[in-house]
User: What shape does this take?
Amino acid sequence: MRKTFLFLAIFALTAGLMGGKALAANLIADGGDTYAAVGEVTVTSDGTNLVVTFTVDTGDWVFVETHLHVAKEVGDIPQTKKNNPKPGNFDYDESNASTTPTEHTYTIPFADIGVTPDDDIFVAAHAAIKYVEIVNGEDDPQGDRELWDDILHEESAWGEGPEFAEDRNWAMYIEDTVPYYLNTGDGTPAGTEAGIVIDLPPGTTLGDIASIFWLVYTVTGYPPHIDITLDVNGDGIVDPEDMLTGEMNLNCVGAPQSIAALQTQIAYDSGWLQTFELTSGDGFDAIDDSTIFWVTKMGSGNLNAPSGTLADWKAGVVANDPESEMTTPVINGATPVVKIEIEIDNWVVQSAAYVKGINVN
Assistant: This one.
């Protein structure tokens, strides 16, 4: 069942980008010669728009102009027959951006470019930049003072990535995936949620789920958790036993950990990690049979709610039931699964994160 499920709903409160760099590429100047990084291009989303920001942060460089094109196929970016890009034909230029001398930001509705979160995209980000160098010239023959010369430096720059026409032109494009943006807002009211709902095909059972993973870029708070909604008795109503929750505090290095302790270890605003990883490759990169889930509506975590590994639940075993709420196993591998939700909430802490690359197998 590799990514065959339909994404039917996204619910989120969005309150600005909060400074997160969901995707950052170097802005490269003079790629045919010195190949110098003079800034960066970031690609984020705010829930309904793609937000692309050009920044120049080296020396005295400033923008003269910028050009931007976003496409779902690299061949849809305006190019010559020899694959040299044509910035003058790109869909957007600085007249469409919010600008300062060192930053140009484009906010583009998803509908305008025909994309949705988790779509693969190709971004051509071109800039013309300049700076004026003042150098010591010759002595003034009419006096003691020195003359100073102004030298204008001008370069083209591109967001770093694969080249359009290798060995013929160093112009580049950025290739990545549109991220979902999840944000619980200003923290009120308590219990505010933001997440991604994945409705599963009729007939899907708990035993069908082998693994689930996603990429996450945590901006603030607590990373997303996963809810698996079941229909144990087939009545179409979410009963107390009809939801399993898995989250980082029970599935991470050093688990169980408090959320407060995890906040001292989470690498905020520093890059993409997978699922419940605190550091890349630490072994918690996917939901699988070893992941601990608890019955969402019967308590909190493994302290007072029935809990166990996904393998336990598939086997019909209630591994841990501190308050004897599930005296008879009602969840097993044959239990119907209605949907999966990857979400954040603010019961404990206000949170925001980017998510992409969701796979359900």
Remarks:
- Residues 204 and 337 are 6 Å apart (CA to CA).
- Residues 1-21 have pLDDT under 50 and may be disordered.
- The helical segments are 110-113, 259-263, 301-304, 310-314.
- The chain has four helices and 23 strands.
